[in-house]
Amino acid sequence: MNELIYFFNYVVIAGSVTGCIYAIGAVGVTLIYSILRFAHFAHADMMTLGTLAVLLLTLAFPHAGDPLGLPTAIVMLPVGMAITSLIAVGIDRAFYQPLRNHGVKPIVMVIASLGVTLMLQGLIRLFAGTGSQNLYVDARKEIFRIDVPGITRPIILTEPQIILFIVTVLAVVGLHLFLTRARLGKAMRAMSDNPDLARASGINTKLIITLTWVIAGSLATLAGTLLSLDVAFKPDLSFFLLLPIFAAAIVGGVGHPYGAIAGGFLVGFAETLAVFNWSVLLRPLRDSLPTWLELPNNLALVGTEYKIVVPFFILIAVLIWRPTGIFKGKVI
Amino acid sequence: MPLLEAIDVHGGYGGMNILNGVNMTIEADEVGVIVGPNGAGKSTMLKAIFGLLTITQGEIRLRGEAITNLSPHKLVEMGMGFVPQENNIFPSLSVEENLEMGAFLKPGTASRLKAQIYEFFPPLLEKRRQPAGELSGGQRQMVAMGRALMNEPSVLLLDEPTAGLSPLYMNEIFERVKTINAAGVGVLMVEQNAKQALRIAHKGFVLAAGQNRFTDTGAALLDDPQVAKSFLGG
Amino acid sequence: MNSTSNTPSSRHAASHRTMPKRELVLFGGLALVVLAVFATMGPAYSTRMLVEASCYAILALGLTIQWGYAGQFNAGIMGFVALGGFSATFFSIPVNHEFWSSDLPGRLGWVLLAMVVVTAIVFGISRLDRIGVPKLLRTTLAIVAGLVGYLVVISWLRSVTGDIESQVEFIGGLGLPVWLGWIVGGVLAGGVGYFIGHICLGLRSDYLVIATLGIAEIIKAFLKNSDWLTRGTATISPLPWPVAEPGDVGFLTARALYLSVTVVMIAVIFFLLHRAYHAPWGRMIRAIRDNEVSAAAMGKSINRRRQEIFVFGCILMGIGGAALTSFNGLFDPQGFLPLNHTFLVLVMVILGGPGNNLGTLFGAVLVYVIWIMSGPMALAVMHAFVALGSHWFDWQPGNLDSRALQARVFVIGLLILLVLRFAPRGLIPEKVAHHD
After folding, report:
1. A186: which chain B residues are within 8 Å (Cβ-Cβ)?
2. Tell me, what DSSP letter sits at residue B205?
3. For chain B, which has fewer Cβ within 10 Å, the N-terminal or C-terminal residue?
4. B73 and A204: CB-CB below 8 Å?
């Protein structure tokens, strides 16, 4: 039974954590795609940027969270989200909007977003260096051990993981309510469906675009901060986050927020399962196996250093067999 | 003062003129129908009025006020409604949400108007929770017109509202157009089904090569042997 | 967009008149800049810079045919460079006799054979539906067989590579001439390009960007972690040159000889590209880029042409990467960076003029000179900033050198955005010939 708990700790929990991060990231990518019709490659660095904002705020007020009993970074999260949204809108006005007004092809927008990603990377590393930093400033990460009766190994959950799960659920429910109930949310879906008709209906498309960047910037900050709370703030994560997030968005069907959530969990769990050492689960059977079948010590599908291969292969498989994704996405 | 006036309108795409001097006048209680052969510039004229392409010469007036080359967004605010021929609904939004989008500028009036639209197009009521993309062609056209009406326009531009519909639905749509007009909305529509359309038209405009060829009342155009011979297929 | 389409003929006529002058001025200016570098930094340093710039020019030509000719954007140049670099290294470094005299080559051979066998078995199972096996059963069988086979082979491979690392460090090279490695590097890169292109070229161009970005990171991860093959982070050096080495004839002469090799390569590529561009094949490529629908309507096999051009571009990147790595004399998988090997090349192409070979060459040399010179400049600017920052905010950042590097990242990003906005056709735009 210890093995099952091990599996739970290293696959179910770890996979859910990764899945939540990828899902929130992919929702941002997919929303930008459905409104602005280009793949926003600066999204991973926007996550890092948002996290940096939260980190700086946390460094400035290390004990702001104490009265609430929450990590300071969580208390600073809304402020960080606001700052990042503002920057995202600013980037759009300065760089994307002129190109959009020029009527360039989507691929040129993609290249522009690569330019933005480099600028953000440069700025982030200029101010934060390249080393990793802990988001728990002057505080300790709480770890909960839940004993399961009759088993020596406990289920291990950390404080940031619990916060992550709660916040993810809140974010998803909030986004769902916004898109289906709020007037602007419906207008966002309308614009994603048919931008010309949205304009002909009097929908203020500029406002919708601004709103999209606010949501994307906020979600990016959320994902980045929660990831960094769980591990640490790493300025050079972006290209490694980009691939799984895009794979998740494409698997779920581009332009489809619920698909992106499903895709995020799919990619997250696939990654976790692929690097999991299955040998551990088979170990209790070792004595009953025939002698010629020696159990290798490492039965992981891929080594951790090749984790990035997993989203790539998911991406390739989807592109080959179902380019519209699980939930039929919009445009190919 | 006429509701909508177009005076000697020239315009087109990419420097190539499609409209070479079109004149039109519609009163507030009138249905105007634009007919003519393919490539005559019928839909182009409608798009020119709605600010979707650049007018190089001439003027368009709404209740006497010049609206030449204003943006669609502005025109919607001024009470103009436009139903394109294709892609005229939000397919993944429900019927109800489609209608709400039409009232985007006047959220306060949405629920009252929605009830009116359902009364007007009864089939939409039972399908109001369905994605509009799943409806039949005629029902989609109802959604499209309903969406445009949600803004309480004073003038409604319809681009071939009956294209691709069965005769049954076609007559239904024409009946609705008459009712809409009777409720005080000026209508200007482009139609391929010229005979039926002219029957409900107070004014008819026969365009050819981007110019007015004949302009008269609908009934007069139907009776004109020359119009019948060249444009109505005998 | 409406106003421009009625005047293409007049614009082209104008550009034909002014173009030679513009090119002369730009290249003259570039020559002056290079001379200035020669005067201040000395000939040995400057020749090195020119060799590297010429290698980058090969990479940039690879991208200009993909992006400029065909509108395919490749964001994984780094991966193709790394493949070329690995191939050049593997072919040219001396044979590791210790490895070949042990039983390890045999064991490695068996693993490779097993890989082939497993692939064949899985492929066979995936075709079972042709003899009446239900599709669901076939798929299940294929997945199970693939998984089991993969696990067996991978654990076998792990044990062999582990032994290689512990007994003989790595498998060494082939001791063959460098140029053979360059050619194979091009072929390898072309093969990967074929794989990616086959999957992505029929889809929206955004997908090609993400796929190339991904494959580049994967190639790098593989080369970095396969210590048995590449010594990984321990790096391999020195690498032989195709010409006389600095140790024999001195730095300047050796580098000048190397430069002549790369220049000849560029000349050959230029000639081939020029011929291809004006041949029916080139016209077809541009027709597809400019109006896919009408090109398809004319019955052109779009995907084949696209595939050809993408693979061709990747081959050039492989060769360029091989030449660059050989020249550096060091194979370090961690030294391949998206910034230096992907985005720098992108800037060269979009600044120089996508689709214009001469413009691309100009962009490559200019951007590389700026890039090399920007290191010290960035450091100086950093010092100025820190002086201000510490004065105002008591900001005391450490390791200025690495931060200065990051400032260059920012500048490259900004440059991309500025060029896209203000000079979308580059400094020497593509000359659109009349073919109507």
Report:
1. 93, 97, 100-101
2. E
3. C
4. yes
Q: B14 — contact with chain A (CB < 8 Å)? A: no
Residue at A76 is within a domain: yes
Residue-range definition of the domain harbouring residue A128 = 2-237
Domain count of the fold of chain A: 1
Same-domain status, B56 and B99 = no
The answer to whether residue B171 sits within a structural domain is no
Q: Is residue B61 part of a domain?
A: yes
Domain span including residue B118: 80-152
Chain A adjacent subunits, 3+ CB pairs under 8 A: B, C
CB contacts of C3 in chain B (<8 Å) are 14-15
Q: Between A186, A192, A196, which is nearest B101 by CB?
A: A186
Tens-level pLDDT at each residue, chain C (436 residues): 343 333 334 444 444 444 578 888 889 999 999 998 888 888 888 999 999 999 999 999 999 999 988 888 899 999 999 999 999 999 999 998 888 898 889 999 999 999 999 999 999 988 888 888 888 888 889 889 998 888 888 888 888 988 898 888 888 889 899 999 999 999 999 999 999 998 888 777 888 998 998 899 899 999 999 888 888 888 888 888 988 888 888 888 999 999 999 999 999 999 998 888 888 888 888 888 777 767 766 666 777 888 899 999 999 999 999 999 999 999 999 989 888 889 999 999 999 988 888 999 999 999 999 888 877 777 777 777 777 777 766 666 666 666 777 778 888 899 899 999 898 888 888 876 544 3
B38 & B134 share domain: no
Nearest CB partner across the interface for A202, out of B77, B84, B87: B77
- Minimum distance, in Å, between the CA of residue A24 and any CA atom of chain C: 19
B14 at interface of C, judged by CB pairs closer than 8 A:
yes
User: The complex's ipTM?
Assistant: 0.87
Option in C204, C221, C346 nearest A332 (CB): C204
Point out the residue among A198, A199, A202 whose CB comes nearest to the CB of B151.
A202
Contact list in A for residue B102 (CB cut-off 8 A) is: 201
Domain contains A8: yes
Determine, yes or no, domain membership for B145: yes
Residue found by looking up tokens 């070949």 in the block: C100
What secondary structure, in 3-state letters, does chain C show? CCCCCCCHHHHHHHHHHHHHHHHHHHHHHHHHHHHHHHHHHCHHHHHHHHHHHHHHHHHHHHHHHHHHHCCCCCCCHHHHHHHHHHHHHHHHCCECHHHHHCCHHHHHHHHHHHHHHHHHHHHHHHCHHHHCCCHHHHHHHHHHHHHHHHHHHHHHHHHHHHHHHHHHCCCECCCCCHHHHHHHHHHHHHHHHHHHHHHHCCCCHHHHHHHHHHHHHHHHHHHHHCHHHHCHHHCECCCCCCCCCHHHHCHHHHHHHHHHHHHHHHHHHHHHHHHHHHCHHHHHHHHHHHCHHHHHHCCCCHHHHHHHHHHHHHHHHHHHHHHHHHHHCCECHHHCCHHHHHHHHHHHHHHHCCCCHHHHHHHHHHHHHHHHHHHHHHHHHHHHHHHHHHHHHCCCCCCHHHHHHHHHHHHHHHHHHHHHHHCCCCCCCCCCCCCC
Q: For residue A286, tell me if it sits in a domain.
A: no
Query: Measured between CB atoms, does C5 come within 8 Å of chain B?
Result: yes
B65 and B86 both lie in a single domain? no
B167 assigned to some structural domain: no
- Considering its fold, how many domains does chain B have in total? 2
Tell me the chain A residues in contact with residue B148 when contact means C-beta distances shorter than 8 Å.
Answer: 201
CA C33 to chain CA centroid, Å, is: 26
Give the minimum alpha-carbon distance from A123 to chain C in angstroms, rounded to a whole number: 6
- For residue C126, the cross-strand partners are none
- Whether residues B104 and A189 touch (CB distance < 8 A) is answered with no
Judge if B158 and B225 occupy the same domain.
yes
